[in-house]
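Subject: for your reference before the review

Hello V.,

The reviewers asked for a structural picture of the protein, and I figured it would be easier to keep everything in one thread rather than splitting it across files. Below is the amino acid sequence we used in the manuscript, unchanged from the supplementary table.
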Amino acid sequence: MDSKKHNIPVFWNIEEFSEDVYTLEVSIGRYNIKEGDTLSEIAQQFNTTIEKLMMQNKNIKDPDVIYAGDYLVIFSVFE
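And here is what came back from the structure prediction:
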């Protein structure tokens, strides 16, 4: 078994909103794009936006062009 195939990249982004409030955005998984998927459907499924998915997955250059077999890193926000 190829262990690289199952690795999930780990990324995070911390934003300070005030001295007492921080938001931590952490990757929680990887979504394998299937034939017929659209970026808007994937965004809706994970309660996010197309813009955020594109910002978090720099491999997406055009929101109308994604390929089955590729994957997206999915993030969750913790406050």
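For the response letter, the relevant points are probably these. Strands lie at 12-16, 22-32, 71-78. Residues 39-45 form the longest helix (7 residues).

Happy to draft the paragraph if you're swamped.

O.
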